[in-house]
Design a protein that fits this description.
With about 180 residues, the chain is of the alpha+beta class. The protein has 4 helices and 8 strands. A hairpin with a 3-residue loop joins strand 1 and strand 2. Helix 1 crosses helix 2. InterPro entries: EXLDI.
């Protein structure tokens, strides 16, 4: 096995020591870090970026992947809204992030009185003071599919048409201008 010498500054010595403790072997730690660095840098050069989305109910949890946004849109009705973002991952899969929220239907004032709103007031509430608001009910999901056709049933038709058009476009187009 080839031998490589790495010179470490005194300032970075503690970092290398901690990496060795975590990985069990400094060579493994360095290889893991370099593998991740090369993967992310190659993706960046190809036009991909690191995407982090929130998934689940309320604040949920975060999920991260390498991709490029190819289309986004949404729809709303009297009970709430849905926001959609469709990405192409670095591996060629399609990733749908859907955020569904129900609009506010009531606000409780400081004196304990509950007020119900309809129409546009349900989105912004009344202009009265001393109100406490609770977060809109909602859930965000992440769907990963192999083909554009698998998205047809998951998103609005107009957004599907945009995704279908963008799916075959290069991530980055170099212009010779």
């Amino acid at each position: 096995m080839p031998n490589k010498t790495i010179y470490v500054s005194d300032d970075d010595l503690a970092l290398y020591k901690r990496a060795q403790e975590l990985a069990g072997n400094l060579s493994q730690a360095i290889s893991m870090a370099l593998r991740r660095y090369v993967e992310m840098e190659e993706g960046r050069l190809e036009g991909f970026e690191e995407i982090t989305v929130r998934v689940g109910r309320g604040t949920g949890r975060q999920q991260r992947f390498s991709g490029v946004l190819i289309a986004e849109g949404g729809r709303s009705n009297k009970s709430g809204y849905e926001a959609f973002k469709v990405y192409r991952s670095r591996t060629g899969k399609f990733v749908l992030h859907a955020d569904r929220r129900q609009q506010y239907s009531s606000v409780t004032t400081v004196d304990g009185e509950e007020q119900n709103f309809t129409g546009w007031r349900s989105w912004i509430g009344s202009l009265a003071t001393n109100q406490t608001w609770s977060m809109a009910q909602g859930e965000a999901t992440l769907h990963i599919v192999e083909t554009v056709e698998e998205l047809r049933e998951l998103i609005p038709a107009d957004l599907y048409a945009m995704v279908e058009e963008a799916a075959d476009q290069p991530t980055v187009e170099d212009l010779d201008i």
